[in-house]
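TEACHING EXERCISE
Course module: macromolecular assemblies
Task: Read the component lines below, then compare them to the predicted structure of the full complex.
Student: A.B.
Group: 4
Components provided:
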Amino acid sequence: MIMTTDAPSVIELDGVTKRYGGKIACDAVDLTVRQGTTFGLLGPNGAGKSSLIRMLMGLSPANSGQIRLFGENASKHSTALRQRIGYVPEVHCMYRWMTVGEILGFVSKLYPRWDDDLANQMLSTFELPLTKKVSSLSKGMTTKLSLILALAHTPDLLILDEPTSGLDPIFREEFLESVLQCHLCKGRTVFFSSHHFDDVERVADEVGIFVDGRFIARGSIEDLRSKIKRVQIVLPDGKLPAYIPEQAVFQRLSRRDWTVTVSPFSEELFEQLMSENHAIGGNVVDLSLEDIFKDVIRGRKRQLEEIES
Amino acid sequence: MIWALIRKDLSLLRLYLRSLVGVLIACFVAAAILIFWDVRDAGQSFADSRFMIASILAGGSLPGLIVVTIFSASLSGSIITLERSDRSSQFLACLPPTRLQNYLSKLVVVTSAVLLSLGICLLAWFIAYQLNHSGEMSLGSSELSKKFNETNHLPIFTAGLLRFADLWSDATLYNLFPLFAVLASTTGASLLASWGSRFNAVPAIFGFLTPIVLYVAIMSPIGLLKLMSFEEAFKLFSFVTAGFGLCCIVASGCIYRVQREF
Amino acid sequence: MLIDPKSSTPIFRQIADQLRQTIDANVYRPGEMLPSLRAMAVEICVNPNTVQRAYEALEREGVVETRRGVGIFVAATNRDHLNASEQRLSKQFSTAIRQGVKARLTPDTVRSVFEDSLRQILVEVKK
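Instructor-supplied answer key:
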């Protein structure tokens, strides 16, 4: 089950750029996601995550670069390609006047690999009534219906755009369980963007932090956590940090307590920080994915502010 | 896959299609009421039910043709814009069918609905004609007038309708062509006008006005300058209108294909 | 099973440790089959690759063993899986064997001494 590096690539982005007017949403992005991997796309709002996902779905074209899905050029987005992908968007736009049963009936005819048993199984797990109109479903129920529509045709790739936003914890767990049971456990690929770091840490094999159209950190969660750590140093009285390493991503000073997040971390760097700043005390803190995310984003923000001023 | 799309588009327009059926039925019912009132007012008991039925059928099909024209604009104006107004077009854009398949399904639904309702009106007209001219007493409207003149009362309305029914004898595919041309132009223009719109009223109005505008634009300069006879001018109008309608249909298909819903 | 995604312990390690605890608590006995990879992944809501790493870690530590095509089973030979009296006996054996090894007795000698003693005691008990 563990994906190896010789697994075929499912998603390939090659120097993909997307511009909206003057703003760059994607800046020469390179990415490869192999079969069986779950890739989590993290990033602040407005970073270009949704436009990246829309380009993957063939809903908007890239300005330059190539997007390949299953080795096939995705710009055409043929029917056959669409039938291998399941998509759960952030905002659901299903036909509100249809009932649950009607919309399942409609969508099922569009996919040759539709599995009726799986659809019925998910319907009963989620307790979705067939006769209820989509317009009268709650947000959680609509998301679950969207997931059934995406998973019941047994896609090879599942793309989720902020799937659990606005869902209560029980809904979120049920949603993740379904994704795991019906998809991941069959060796298929998932590409999702999310702000729920707990979910990302549990489910993702690889994550990428996407800011201002670029990946500024990418790799397995363990890699990121071993690479990016926070050093806490107690400075002597009245002293400011004398040595700020180039690996510093973000730093904060509060009285004598100076915390600096570094990437990449090494023991030598820690010792250097201690000695060159004449530290009274210090220790290394392991960061959670959420902390890494926050520090990376804040650091970049501050960088841009300094450039502007 | 296309059948699923067609069923979906039929469902999408269910309200409009039901109104179309309702209004057509109402035309015939209204005709029946007016005819009964007309005939009763004339102090006659209209013994021969043949003429009653013929006049009711004629009385329904005449406004029916206008209703079909209005609905052809309304259906075409709505079939794309309804999906856009609640953004379900974005949902459809993520599904496997291509844009062309989506458009063809809509075209099939609209064309079928228009042709079917048109067919019903023409059939009613045809049956009215046959009823009016069957049996030992083959009554044309002149003979009918004679019959009523005996009693000094003439149901004008009913007589007029039977006269209209008589016109079927001139109806050939060739003579009915202007009707098809007008419907093609209303359908095509509405579809094309839905391109930029999220509201179905605007394209529908565009579509309905198109044959009127074309008529005025073609017939008045020809009439004023006396370039050709009325029949020839009318023929020209029909061809231009039909051509315009077909071009609009093709153009709106091309636009729909490349249009992005986001 | 409670997984804390924020903890500095990697998730696969947390799973392995908690599984080990349930095995020690005799929730799963030696020789019993553990839940399949997929069932476990769905139950605790974690990527199946991570669960696989946990199982692999436990296998390396000798706590579980994989039988191809059948499933993952609690290893029968791990000392921690013995009950209280078995553990006491195991400790006593360890002391005795260590003394023998110190006295430079060969493993075969140790084994034959053990078997002689066992036979003698069994004869006594029968009487």
